[in-house]
From TrEMBL, chain A:
A Gene Ontology term for the protein's cellular component: plasma membrane
Lineage of producing organism: Bacteria, Bacillati, Actinomycetota, Coriobacteriia, Coriobacteriales
Spans through the membrane: 34-56, 68-95, 101-119, 230-248, 268-285
Subcellular compartments: Membrane
UniProt-recorded name of the protein: Energy-coupling factor transporter transmembrane protein EcfT
UniProtKB/TrEMBL annotation, chain B:
GO molecular function, one term: ATP binding
Organism: Olsenella porci
Family that this chain belongs to: Belongs to the ABC transporter superfamily.
Name of the featured protein: ATP-binding cassette domain-containing protein
SUPFAM superfamilies, alphabetized: P-loop containing nucleoside triphosphate hydrolases
Any one annotated GO CC term: ATP-binding cassette (ABC) transporter complex
Length: 294, 472
C-alpha cells in the first residue's frame, strides 16, 4: 500500500523524525480534545489540505467518500440521542431536532474525520522505520523487537495466503478448503509449525552474529538530531503548547447546551491555525522552490 | 595468497550427536582432516545429509552442535576454544551464512539488518556507519539500502545475508548451501560476489554445497565428503553436468486438451504491473509440460491460475481436471501439517482409498527408508521434506499435477528419484505441468517445453527440439 502512494515531496522528509512527531502529535491532541466549532473546523481544513499534499487528490477523495457521509451521520444522529438545546428547528414524530445538538454532532463528526486523516498522514510522514529510529537511542532492544515484528507479520500474512491456496489447489486429496472451519484450523497448524521451525534458524543466525554476547546493544542511527531540528522541534512544541492552552480557554468559554454563545473573532485561534497549517505550508513552500529550480 | 598459517585447520575430528550409543555407524564425522590456507576459496561437496553442515557448524563456536567430539579445530593458528571464549573475537574471525534467504534475516529493513551484528557487538556508532557503508558499496547494495526485506527477491536477500555477516569483517567465511534456493541468474551473481569477497578483501571462503558447478570456476581447492570422511578432489573434476535421465522418454499417446489458457491477463492489485500479459497455453492429457523462464516471468502465477486459486482479469484459463489436481508449492512446508511422516502420508488415505503399505511404498520410491515414518516432518532435511511432499501428492492419484520448482534445493540423488517418479507418473497417463529453472531435469522428464517471458508464451516446442534450437 505504502509503495503505491505518490512519490512527491512531503514535508519533514529532510528533518529528524522528532520534528514531524512533535508537530503532528500536538495537532492531533488538540484536535481530539477541543470540541469547539472554530477549532474543529480549523483541524478539519488542516487535515484535508495536508492529506491532499501527502496522499494526493485521488486517495484523499477515496477517504472522504466514506468519511464525509460518516460526518453527516454523526451530525444527524446526535439529535436522536441528545434532546438538550433550546432552538427547535423541526419536529419529526417524537423527536425534536435542536440546532444545538445538531451543531454538537457536526463538531464531533469533524473531529472524528480530521483525527482519522491526521493519523493517516502521520503514518505516511513517519513511517514505522523512522518512528523506530526515534526510540532507537534509549531503547535499542525494544527497537529490535518492533523491527522483528515488522518483518514477521508480513511474512506470516504472505505465508497464510500460500498455505491457503495450496490447500484449495489440492482437490485430489479431498482435504478441507481454506474457507471452512477445518481448513482454518489446519492452516493455523501449518503456519505455527512453519514459524517455529523458522525461529530455530533465525535464532542460530542471531547467535552467529553476536546476539546476546555483550549483554547490551548500541544502535545504528540513520538520521541525526541536528541543532536545526532541535530548534524546529522546540518551536513546534511551544506552538503546540500555546495552542493547547488557548484551546482549553476557548473550550471553557464555549458551551453547546442549553444555547450556544455567539462566536466572535479572537486572536487566540491563531496559534492553532498556524500549527494545523504548518505541514501543508512547509510542503507547498518546498514544492514551489523545487518548481522554480526545475 | 597463502599466509603463514591455515585459516581453518581440522585435525582428526570425529563427531557423534547425543542420544546415539556410540557404535561405529553413529559417527557423523570420522577422523576428518582439513587444512584451508589463508585466502583460499574452498568447496566442500557431498550429497545432502553427509555431514557438511555439521563440520561447518563445528567451526563456528556459537553454532557448534552438542555431542561427542574428538580431535581439534583451529582458526588462524588459534585453537577454537580460545576464540569461543570471546564473542567479539569469534565475530571478527569467522562469519556464517545459512542456506535459506528467508529464515536467516532478522529485521524488517535492509539497513537495520546490516547493522544487527554490529549493534549486538556494541560497536560505536561512527565505526558502525563506516562498516555498513563500505560493505554496502562493495556489494553494490546502495539502490536498495532503504528497502524493506519483504520487498526483496530471494537473490537480494541472500546478498543481504552475506552483507550483514561481512559488515563484521570476518577473516573466514563459512557458507552452508548459500545458492541452492536461488534461481540460476541470482546464483551466478552471488557466486561472483563471493569470489570478489575472496580475492579483493582476502577473506578465506569455505562453501558447503551439493551442486558445485556455479562455484567451480572460482575455487582454489575442493574436498568431497562421503560417509563422514573427507577426500581432496580437483575442482575441475566437479565441472560435469550429471545426467538425470535413464534413457530416452518412452512414447505415450496424448489425449485431448485438458488445460487451456487463452489471452490470460493477470495482476495482483489494481495498481500493480501485469504479471501475465495475454498468455496462451494448451496442455494435452497425459503430457508432461515444463514451464521455463526467468524470475518474475509469471511461472508461479500461471500455475495458481491453472489450479483455480486465482482468476485472470481478462481472457480465460480452463482446466478440465480441476476436480482431481494437486499443487506442490515452492516451499513444501506449506503442505506439511502432521505430527509424523506416516501421518502426513496417510492424511488423505480415507478420501482417496489407499493403505499403509502403499504409503510406505511411495516413500521408498523417493529413496527414503521406513525408519523415517515416525519422525516429525520438520526433522527431515529440506530436500527430504520436498520428496515427502511429492510422495504425499502422488498418493492422491491426481489426474493433474502442478509442480512449482520441484527440484529447488535438491541434491543429485533426490533429483534422480524425483525424475524417476515423474516418468512413472507419465507412464500412468497423469498430466503434469511443472515450472522450473532446472534444465537437466526438464530434459529428463518433459515431453514439451514452454518458455515464458514477460508474462507471455515466447515459444512452445517438443523437448528435444527446444534444446536443439536453444541458444543457452
Amino acid at each position: 500500500m505504502a509503495a503505491r502512494l505518490s512519490r512527491r515531496h512531503v514535508a519533514f522528509e529532510g528533518s529528524h523524525p522528532l520534528v514531524p512527531a512533535t508537530c503532528l502529535a500536538g495537532t492531533l491532541l488538540v484536535s481530539m480534545f477541543a470540541i469547539q466549532p472554530v477549532l474543529s473546523c480549523v483541524s478539519l481544513v488542516g487535515a484535508i489540505s495536508f492529506s491532499l499534499c501527502c496522499l494526493g487528490p485521488r486517495l484523499t477523495a477515496e477517504r472522504l467518500r466514506w468519511q464525509l457521509p460518516l460526518l453527516a451521520l454523526v451530525c444527524l444522529a446526535n439529535p436522536i440521542f441528545v434532546r438538550s438545546g433550546v432552538t427547535t428547528l423541526l419536529v419529526v414524530g417524537p423527536v425534536e431536532v435542536h440546532a444545538e445538538s445538531l451543531a454538537y454532532g457536526a463538531c464531533m463528526g469533524a473531529t472524528l474525520v480530521s483525527t482519522l486523516l491526521w493519523i493517516e498522514c502521520a503514518s505516511r510522514v513517519l513511517s514505522a522505520d523512522r518512528l523506530l529510529g526515534l526510540g532507537g537511542g534509549p531503547l535499542p532492544t525494544v527497537q529490535l523487537i518492533l523491527s522483528m515484528a515488522g518483518r514477521l507479520v508480513p511474512q506470516l500474512l504472505a505465508r497464510s495466503r500460500e498455505v491457503g491456496s495450496t490447500l484449495d489447489a489440492c482437490t485430489a486429496g479431498g482435504g478441507p478448503s481454506s474457507g471452512g472451519k477445518a481448513g482454518r484450523v489446519r492452516m493455523t497448524g501449518v503456519l505455527l509449525g512453519w514459524a517455529l521451525e523458522d525461529s530455530v534458524e533465525r535464532s542460530d543466525s542471531m547467535r552467529a552474529r553476536g546476539w546476546g554476547a555483550m549483554g547490551k546493544r548500541t544502535s545504528y542511527q540513520r538520521e541525526a538530531l541536528r541543532a536545526r531540528d532541535a530548534l524546529a522541534a522546540a518551536c513546534l512544541a511551544l506552538l503546540a503548547l500555546g495552542s493547547a492552552v488557548l484551546a482549553w480557554k476557548a473550550c471553557s468559554e464555549w458551551r453547546f447546551y442549553p444555547s450556544m454563545p455567539t462566536l466572535v473573532p479572537w486572536l487566540g485561534y491563531l496559534p492553532y491555525c498556524v500549527l494545523a497549517a504548518a505541514p501543508t505550508a512547509i510542503t507547498l513552500v518546498d514544492r514551489a522552490r523545487w518548481a522554480r529550480l526545475g | 595468497m597463502a599466509g603463514l598459517c591455515n585459516a581453518l585447520e581440522v585435525r582428526d575430528l570425529s563427531f557423534a550427536y547425543p542420544g546415539t550409543d556410540g557404535g561405529e555407524t553413529d559417527w557423523v564425522l570420522r577422523h576428518v582432516g582439513l587444512a584451508v590456507p589463508e585466502g583460499a576459496f574452498c568447496l566442500l561437496v557431498g550429497p545432502t545429509g553427509c555431514g557438511k553442515t555439521t563440520l561447518l557448524r563445528l567451526a563456528k563456536p556459537e553454532l557448534a552442535p552438542v555431542g561427542r567430539r574428538e580431535g581439534s579445530i583451529s582458526l588462524f593458528g588459534e585453537p577454537l576454544d580460545r576464540i569461543a571464549a570471546d564473542p567479539r573475537e569469534s565475530a571478527r574471525t569467522v562469519g556464517y551464512v545459512f542456506q535459506s534467504p528467508e529464515g536467516q534475516i532478522v529485521c524488517d529493513s535492509v539497513w537495520r539488518e546490516m547493522a544487527f551484528g554490529l549493534e549486538s557487538l556494541c560497536v560505536p556508532r561512527d565505526t558502525m556507519r563506516r562498516r555498513v557503508a563500505e560493505t554496502c558499496d562493495f556489494l553494490g547494495m546502495g539502490p536498495w539500502f532503504r528497502r524493506e526485506c519483504s520487498e526483496l527477491s530471494g537473490g537480494q536477500r541472500q546478498v543481504l545475508a552475506l552483507a550483514s555477516v561481512l559488515a563484521m569483517r570476518p577473516r573466514l567465511l563459512l557458507l552452508d548451501e548459500p545458492t541452492s534456493m536461488l534461481d540460476p541468474v541470482a546464483e551466478r551473481n552471488f557466486a561472483s560476489l563471493l569470489f570478489r569477497v575472496n580475492r579483493e578483501l582476502g577473506v578465506t571462503v569455505v562453501v558447503a554445497t551439493h551442486d558445485p558447478r556455479p562455484l567451480v570456476d572460482y575455487a582454489d581447492m575442493a574436498v568431497s565428503m562421503e560417509g563422514g570422511a573427507l577426500r581432496e578432489v580437483s575442482p575441475d573434476a566437479l565441472r560435469d553436468e550429471p545426467d538425470l535421465a535413464e534413457g530416452p522418454l518412452p512414447a505415450v499417446t496424448l489425449g485431448a486438451t485438458q488445460v487451456q489458457a487463452s489471452d490470460a491477463w493477470f495482476r495482483y492489485g489494481r495498481d500493480d504491473d501485469w504479471v501475465l500479459r495475454g498468455l496462451d497455453l494448451s496442455v494435452s492429457g497425459g503430457e508432461t509440460r515444463a514451464i521455463v523462464g526467468g524470475n518474475g516471468s509469471g511461472k508461479t502465477t500461471l500455475l495458481s491460475l491453472v489450479a483455480g486459486v486465482g482468476r485472470p482479469q481478462r481472457g480465460r484459463v480452463r482446466n478440465w481436471l480441476r476436480g482431481s489436481q494437486v499443487l506442490l508449492p515452492q516451499n513444501p512446508k506449506a503442505l506439511l501439517s502432521q505430527q509424523s511422516v506416516l501421518e502426513e502420508l496417510m492424511e488423505w488415505s480415507r478420501n482417496v482409498g489407499y493403505g499403509r503399505d502403499e504409503a510406505v511404498d511411495a516413500l521408498d520410491k523417493m529413496g527414503m527408508g521406513e525408519e523415517l515414518l515416525p519422525r516429525h516432518p520438520y526433522d527431515l532435511s529440506g530436500g527430504q521434506q520436498q520428496l515427502l511432499a511429492y510422495a504425499k501428492l502422488a498418493l492422491a492419484h491426481p489426474a493433474l499435477m502442478l509442480l512449482d520448482e520441484p527440484t529447488k534445493g535438491l541434491d543429485l540423488a533426490a533429483r534422480r528419484s524425483l525424475a524417476r517418479a515423474l516418468r512413472e507418473e507419465r507412464g500412468r497417463g497423469t498430466t503434469v505441468l511443472l515450472s522450473t529453472h532446472d534444465l537437466a531435469f526438464v530434459r529428463a522428464v518433459a515431453d514439451s517445453v514452454t518458455l515464458l517471458f514477460d508474462g507471455q508464451e515466447a515459444c512452445t516446442q517438443a523437448t528435444g527440439e527446444y534444446f536443439a534450437q536453444s541458444w543457452l
